[in-house]
Design goal:
- By secondary structure, this protein is α+β, with helices and mostly antiparallel strands.
- The chain is built from four helices and three strands, in the order αβααββα.
- Helix 2 (17-25) crosses helix 3 (29-37).
- The longest helix is centred in the C-terminal third of the chain and has 15 residues, at 54-68.
């Protein structure tokens, strides 16, 4: 099975678990869990596994900056 170029981009864009999301956002894993539970950050789950896209988080952060301005 060949992997298409955009499949590689998707794999590079996905963060798996609170630890990876926390590292990307410069937070602690507990802060990610709290924000997810409150519905404050964009994420998705597959079963009990937590995921987020880097691109979605960056867009969300940019929109938050616009609200704060």
């Amino acid at each position: 099975m060949q992997i298409a170029a955009n499949d590689n981009n998707l794999a590079d864009d996905v963060l798996e678990g609170a630890g990876e999301i926390a590292d990307f956002m410069k937070l602690k894993a507990r802060q990610v869990y709290t924000a997810v539970a409150a519905g404050h950050i964009p994420h998705y789950r597959i079963g009990s596994n937590l995921f987020a896209r880097k691109s979605t988080l960056l867009s969300w952060i940019a929109s938050q900056e616009g609200v704060a301005a």
